[in-house]
Amino acid sequence: MAAHADEPIRLAVGELARFLGADVDDPAFLTDPHRCLTPGIREKSVHRLPGGALAVLGYTACAEVLRDTRFGHGARELYETTLLGLPARSFLQLDAPGHTRLRGQVARHFTARRVRALAENVGYYSTALVREHAGRPGDFVADFAEPLAMSVISDVLGVPPEDRPAFHRDARLVVRGLDQPARAMDERAVAQARFRFVRFFRRRAQARRQAGTRHRAPRDGLLDALSHRPDGSPADIRELVTTCSLLLSAGYDTTVSLLSHAVAELGGAPSGQGWALARDPQTVGAVVEEVLRLHSPVQIAPRAAVRDAALDGLPVARGTIVLPLLPAANRDPDIFDSPHTFRPRRYLAPAAQGRSTARHLAFGAGAHFCLGAALARLTAHSALAVLAACPPRPRDAPRTYSEGVVVRGLRSLPVTWPHRPAERPPHPPADGAAAYVEPSCPIPHAQRSVT
User: Fold this and answer.
1) Which residue among 42, 158, 210, 366 sits deepest, i.e. has the most Cβ atoms within 10 Å of its Cβ?
2) Cα–Cα distance, 384 to 387 (Å, whole number)
3) Global confidence as pTM
């Protein structure tokens, strides 16, 4: 497939890599991209790249871009072309009013109470996975983080257990496809996965509507809840598909990255001090926040100036691409003491010496603050509580990182699972029935760009 080199965002990301002196395909860069943030580059919070785009490294400037309505995407409804030169494929790429409407439909089903109700399921899945792999070498990402994250987001969406293997395979492709604005990939494979999502979601929505006429609803989940608009009318199937695809990214990639980096950092802490913090309900929250700060899952949150503006003293003309680097902001030495050091206690009041530590930007800020933040935090808290009782030990073997430009995370983390298994799970989560199957026929051409 063509790389679409004329897309402004891809060109801007390429310029950013050259400015940092980095090769985004270099394993050394993927392992430690922060080595590019030299003191010379850090001297300025905002840099103008040769093509005119702005690279934003400072915490204060990044927060301003994320919160200020002068910076956005320039599209108001799905499939409009954004100022970044791409079609808006979800409400993540929309400004008001489209963003407000679509995000609101999801947010009303994503309350803190609903998220907390998932904690029991997270504990069950975590305990079962630890028992399954007890006493042997393995890979934490493949053995634990990925299956747990997919099980949790499948619970949220309402995908029944029997359909999850196929759903999981396609979900990984769809999530990878969200990195397309910055990197070319096998677009046909991504399109095929999206098509299967379309078919599954359409059948699910149809089943919900038919069940509604018989006063009997199928399994409760966001797929079912979003199949109708608040006024009771059927939802637009395209909006349903794009919204669920976005939730996959919010609930999957972030959780996999968070859990994997947490285990890597806790396992490397001296004398088990890290796991002691994770074991304590009063301090595990600080561990989670420090992992998010130190290893931001989302690397770049692209925006464009929707009207003429200024940033850190630089004029910004309408349409200018702005690239906030969230990991750079979260390691800003003017904001965080010892910014490259894993120090969970910085988030505890005594360690802060009477002053609060700045909130990291790993989940963004402003109107586009990550909807999956509460779910990712709850999953991490519950999973770490299980893991801390009998922690996996990192092995002396190479770790690898995903090749994503926008989203970064560990692809493999070799560990040895403890011999003593976790307590037996009390009971499996409730399940339901639906159908998610792979097609045996080629994809109709007209369906390949639905999302």
Assistant:
1) 158
2) 5
3) 0.85
